[in-house]
Amino acid sequence: MEIDLRKKCNSSSTETAAKLKLYSYFRSSCAWRVRIALEYKGLPYDVIPIQLMRKEQFQSDFVKLNPMAQVPALIVEEKVTLLQSLAIIEYLDDVYPNVPLLPKDPLLRAKVREISELIASGIQPLQNLRTLHKHSDDPNEKLRWAQFWIHNGLQALEKTLTECSGVYCVGNDITMADCCLVPQVANAYRFKVDTSGFPVIARIEKMLSEEPAFQRAHASNQPDCPPELYSKL
Amino acid sequence: MEIDLRKKCNSSSTETAAKLKLYSYFRSSCAWRVRIALEYKGLPYDVIPIQLMRKEQFQSDFVKLNPMAQVPALIVEEKVTLLQSLAIIEYLDDVYPNVPLLPKDPLLRAKVREISELIASGIQPLQNLRTLHKHSDDPNEKLRWAQFWIHNGLQALEKTLTECSGVYCVGNDITMADCCLVPQVANAYRFKVDTSGFPVIARIEKMLSEEPAFQRAHASNQPDCPPELYSKL
């Protein structure tokens, strides 16, 4: 049964050492989460940029890979496409557990997943560009909408982190939650959200920004980042 | 360190046999996902209804439990609050693995999580009531918005399931993806989405609707479901 399904998913039945390929866009917070995970785990990968501004995600070749027309998409075992950022990070943690992004304790794992999902379901979908464009043609209204949802989510996140953070989001080890935090905070800055009420988030984000893996994964360090934006991200 | 964190999360360091308590709302698709998981795993739990229409989720006692002011919230080990539906289901699978909701094969696990996340991040946040109210005061525009996002997501889901479904979403075993599918299809019906183009989704949903666990978890079987809605859900 499992072998049949792997065939249906176009997978080989044994893992190969093929290099991972990541369809990414420098400013996509979802692709950014996966880049952090790959960098933190020290996994080599090639980036294939998808220019969201040029609507490359809607081209038929890419929609065949991801019917949701979104980045990230990660190619593993040469030809299997993995989609959805948290599902991809969990896969990487299942297959490459040496540098873990989830704690062993079930309650702490739940907390890491809760924070990740708060961001991935509770904030990001409401402020991504497609949602903004669908909501309004008025740039001011788009900004108000994005600011409302990001502030709403970060306010809840601040309370959660006040309970359960250590040096990082959950305790003193970097986890999947931290992979989600950094790109979401970048979006808060991009949309000029008032983050003054979130000192715990700011403290953790500052610590993470000093980590080499997080620096390598940063939007401004991506091959598809236009030079004029380097200093603005 | 872990013990400190468990203290910070108000947890005891050993698991107790305390009955699980689920803060739920009969029609919340996120709470519904968790009800299915609990019923499918045969775990006894008490339901504490939160009347979203009466805005009980914004009352201070509940916001202390969940700063996002959303259901579900699951109380485990007597006093630890778990939030976010997929994080809760993953916790239940970690702690009660006897009736699994995730396959063992990493690629199949990734597929289950991808489908779950497609629904939990790619559809539900965009069509939930708070988002609808924020988007527009016009009932027709609210309906158009909900229909657009649900149709968009189910269209992608149909393609994914065409590749990887068996009897259920991923192969022939019920998984977390199925816990997500049923409540999302119910929302599609509720918002009168044209689902005629999604035969695979319809086939799987029909199979699942015959499962006793799914029947027990159904919105119409909840203690807070008003009798006049029994036949309409």
TrEMBL record, chains A, B:
Q: In which pathway does it act?
A: Amino-acid degradation; L-phenylalanine degradation; acetoacetate and fumarate from L-phenylalanine: step 5/6
Which cofactors does this protein require? glutathione
Reactions it catalyzes: 4-maleylacetoacetate = 4-fumarylacetoacetate
Q: Which EC number(s) does the record attach to this protein? A: 5.2.1.2
- Please report the name of this protein according to its UniProt entry: maleylacetoacetate isomerase
Which branch of life, at top level?
A: Eukaryota
Q: Which residues form the GST C-terminal domain?
A: 105-227
GO-annotated cellular components: mitochondrion
Q: Which CDD domains match?
A: GST_C_Zeta, GST_N_Zeta
- Domain GST N-terminal span(s) in chain numbering: 18-100
For this UniProt record, give its keywords in alphabetical order, as a comma-separated list. Isomerase, Phenylalanine catabolism, Tyrosine catabolism
UniProt lineage: Eukaryota, Metazoa, Ecdysozoa, Arthropoda, Hexapoda
Please give one Gene Ontology molecular function term for this protein: glutathione transferase activity
What is the species listed in this Swiss-Prot or TrEMBL entry? Orchesella cincta (Springtail)
The record's listing under PANTHER family reads: MALEYLACETOACETATE ISOMERASE
Any Pfam family matching the protein: GST_N
The UniProt similarity line reads: Belongs to the GST superfamily. Zeta family.
Q: Enumerate the Gene3D superfamilies for this protein.
A: 1.20.1050.10, Glutaredoxin
Q: For this chain's UniProt record, which GO biological process terms are given? A: glutathione metabolic process; L-phenylalanine catabolic process; L-tyrosine catabolic process
